[in-house]
């Protein structure tokens, strides 16, 4: 679960990381009322998960209540435009009104999980305010890293070492080790997968302040912090995730791509390989769908309807290799879906093998369907139908 | 021979009385796996539905049965605890099937259980065909032989193995290492074991997008496995960046974890990469024929 900036900054505050004074507002009137009550120089920032707000004109200044009202209205009037990272763009539902800082320097500080070292890695760079991938491309030497031993945890020497190695401006040095420690505390306490401060501002009056906040929490750890379930409700699932949840599969198990060959398989690895097979056969994929392990007829039926009703599929390739999943359950789910549903009809190509494959094939045969033998054959057949 | 697991392995099941644990224990027993008991706190002294002794603690189970391996079917909030308990009791190999274990739990437990090999979490387990199966793999698709297989995925493994078996290429050991970002045993760990296993003559690696495990494996093969026939497959070549597809670990972010980088890494060390799983048997036969 990715947090919005205002939610991330709430966690920063709790862990003692300095953030600008701010107010989260859901509309122009609220923004105006806040600035009227708190005169000064403010920044109005769209609250979205995607990056590139500045370039998209979704961060603006306001020094009066009326200005706060008009820029908030302007920011919220149109969604974030699509960019390379997020080709769908994003709706804007709220803004953060924030104290305008006199910024002298911008740095970067983040903690994430390094898969190879199996440790949290703290990364610091003197090049703040840029996309870190750009920094690693153009100034690879500017990024200093430390792989933190989870048993020993954080110790201030790590912050000192990173500050020197990344040649942070001398103005950061006093505050940085404690700040990095607070960030590690946050990372650890809330089971985060990523915490990122970009930019970490050094103001002209010598304060070190987190000017932005990016926090990704581990969905698998949310059960430990019930309050985040409430936060999650404030973060609308995207359409694919909503549809996946409705069909009773994990939100990562379904993705649409706009092509003409619908796919469904059991297991993420097989589902990815199925997409690859369709592409290799010259087809365009309508979707990724992992029906999950041990799917029963009910779930198969829901997944059938998900693909048929909600994707651009002209043909539907179902690829099941039964392990825990039983072929007869899958076949029963498909047959019930065909009998009961009012879903539009699309030609089906079914490959069914593994556990209880004989029973499954018999059920399909009784309904007048003949499965193909292999994944390649199924992919080729599906692509032929899509192109016909 | 085989790696990690054979017919003499004494195995316990943590979570043996739960529905998953119980179901898969029956299947493992049916395969001939030497399961000697199970652990469910509070049910010590009872017998499982399979007639196996149930213990309250792993320590007790180890003391009584002499088990050295465990397979874990407990729910995600308790998985790390189960691993710590196994480590403390002297278990040498723990297979964690549980899906959805918090990544920080895994980080901490892999850092604090040295001496115990962890496979998984979120994995289908491992099988040494004809000898023993630990986990949830369907035994009937496997056959005994000399191909070692390592995979990040479950059903894709069955797909690939089915092809190998049909082509007459039996397997020494197949390890499902799991699809999470942090896992106890990596491709390289398995390659190292396969190198020392006299039964294993060839290796198949089924990777997928995300992380750099495949690149690390390719580098290790280049240095240590020259001359051993190895074939690779990389799933998820058509996955869009920034979105995990099913497996929490299968995500392309920026320049990292792309199928292209993995395929190039394998090819650079002379490992042929199959475009589709069905090509693996023939590529392997070719590699075997070319090897001395």
What keyword list fits this structure?
heterodimer, A: 388 residues, alpha+beta, D-amino Acid Aminotransferase, Chain A, domain 1, Dna Ligase, domain 1, Rossmann fold, 3 domains, four-stranded antiparallel beta sheet, 15 strands, elongated, B: 292 residues, alpha/beta, 2 domains, seven-stranded mixed beta sheet, six-stranded parallel beta sheet, 9 helices, 13 strands, 33% helix
Write a structural description:
The complex is a heterodimer of chains A (388) and B (292). Helix content of chain A is 38%, strand content 22%. With 388 residues, chain A is α+β, with helices and mostly antiparallel strands. Chain A folds into three domains: 1-19 and 102-236, D-amino Acid Aminotransferase, Chain A, domain 1 (2-Layer Sandwich); 21-100, ATP-grasp fold, A domain (Dna Ligase, domain 1), CATH 3.30.1490; 239-387, Succinyl-CoA synthetase domains (Rossmann fold, 3-Layer(aba) Sandwich). In chain A, the strands form four sheets. In chain A, strands 5, 6, 7, 8, 9 and 10 form a six-stranded antiparallel sheet that branches. A four-stranded antiparallel sheet of chain A has the order 1-4-2-3, covered by helices on one side. In chain A, α2 (28-37) runs antiparallel to α3 and α10 packs across α11 (327-340). Chain A is elongated, with a radius of gyration of 26 Å. The mean pLDDT of chain A is 92. Chain B has 292 residues and is of the alpha/beta class. Chain B has two domains: 1-122, 3-Layer(aba) Sandwich (Rossmann fold), CATH 3.40.50; 138-292, Succinyl-CoA synthetase domains (Rossmann fold, 3-Layer(aba) Sandwich). Chain B contains nine helices and 13 strands. Chains A and B meet through α9 of A and α4 and α5 of B.
